[in-house]
């Protein structure tokens, strides 16, 4: 995200950087061009000053040599003829003032002799141009007129021009027209003297200001010569804002170029406002910023488009997801419907299979009941005979047999009932040994019938269980009968029942030496109605009911092949935990069965 932003921001940054470089280059170029132009202008302005000077330079010399002017020195007083001559000369030459001074500095003849403020009779001995001329030199001095307050360039010569001077001829040149011409040119130009005092300026406010502070001695010297008529000579620029080639004046900055005039240490200054030198820079900045803005707008438009595309894609995807969801919901609905139908079908199947089972069970029960009923008939007939013979003992024995048969038939009925309502049984604490004996007794006729030998091995300790006793007996009976059936198929058939307690379980193993359960049907024998004894009336319910009963009690029923090659069915049941094994009489054997009962090792 951050890198992306930097990448996006990079082009305008680079653009602005390039603009800055270009601006810098242009600024330098502009400054150079301004400086070039300034130097050209300065040469021109210098010419105007020098031209003015040259124009009047020889006039004092001419005057000094002209007796029509110097006559006043001979007379040591003013004369009208001299004054008229000076007046005429001034008019013709264009000079401001012409006058002749004696060695004391008193003016004896002057071109403005008619004026109220005539110079005649006034002493200007304090002026440097007078002193210079008296020293035999050419006097040149710019000053504000001591009498009329008008500024001008004073040019002087001693008279006579050679030898000790008798007086001084002076020409005052008015520089104001020149200054006026500068101002009209619209440029900023001014001239400063050797002390840095501005005496000519196209900006009139700057006149008589100084470029740098003057020392006190210099100030007092200037005051003495009354050069600037006692004006305060303030500083021109805000020195703090000055820089290289830059002058700050009244809050504005100017590019400053200067040149020597070549006269009296004068300097000419040419100023151009800094903002004007930077006019060329605006287009660069404007175009750079414009391009950056254009770029930003472009990026925004592009991003907007990309975002719109992405959101359209998202909308499409969510639409597809919604459709998928709908399809899934439909599918789930369909599955639920099928499941409901399946459950319904299963329920129907269970009901019908139960009905079929009941039907088959009734047939089996009828078959099972026929045997004891036949035996019952036999015993009743026998008893009757014994009673007739008054053999009471034999009759009693028969009666107990009848009682046993009656029990067996009741048990059979119970089996049918249990199949119809399997949960109907009362749970009690039992000693499984009792139930094993009971089951063995009920199974006994089958063993006798088939000639199979039954051996029951029980431990001495009671085998405590918390369960309904009849279902367990039912399971044991099933296993014993199946064992008898299987063992009856071999010559020396036998069945072993062994019960023992292992930790928390009671394990009963019923083994026979029959043919065993073939591998391929081992899984199936616990299914309801699976039987290999159809011909002999097998229902195929025994193991399925037994398995279910074992599971109901919390145990299990499984089958394996034993060492005789026969089957061993293992019934494992959870032992009652709260009762500790108690020692019991080991001689208590089920002698009424023909089975052999041996204690566990
Ligand atoms: P039924 O005895 O009525 O056939 P069962 O559910 O008790 O029904 O037994 C199912 C089948 O399991 C038997 O038909 C027989 O094939 C097989 N089976 C059961 N016990 C034994 C056994 N001890 N040895 C060999 N096969 C057995």
TrEMBL record:
CDD domains: HisKA (cd00082), PDC1_DGC_like (cd12914). It is an enzyme of class 2 (transferase). Pfam families: HATPase_c (PF02518), HisKA (PF00512). It is found in: Cell inner membrane. The keyword Iron-sulfur does not apply. Its EC number is 2.7.13.3. It catalyses: ATP + protein L-histidine = ADP + protein N-phospho-L-histidine. One of its GO terms (molecular function) is phosphorelay sensor kinase activity. Residues 307-341 form a coiled coil. SUPFAM superfamilies: ATPase domain of HSP90 chaperone/DNA topoisomerase II/histidine kinase (SSF55874), Homodimeric domain of signal transducing histidine kinase (SSF47384), Sensory domain-like (SSF103190). One of its GO terms (cellular component) is plasma membrane. Its main location: membrane. Keywords: ATP-binding, Cell inner membrane, Cell membrane, Coiled coil, Kinase, Membrane, Nucleotide-binding, Phosphoprotein, Transferase, Transmembrane, Transmembrane helix, Two-component regulatory system. Residues 577-595 have a biased composition (Basic and acidic residues). Residues 575-601 are annotated as: Disordered. Residues 364-577 form the Histidine kinase domain. It is a multi-pass membrane protein. Member of the two-component regulatory system DctB/DctD involved in the transport of C4-dicarboxylates. DctB functions as a membrane-associated protein kinase that phosphorylates DctD in response to environmental signals. This is C4-dicarboxylate transport sensor protein DctB. It comes from Roseibium aggregatum.
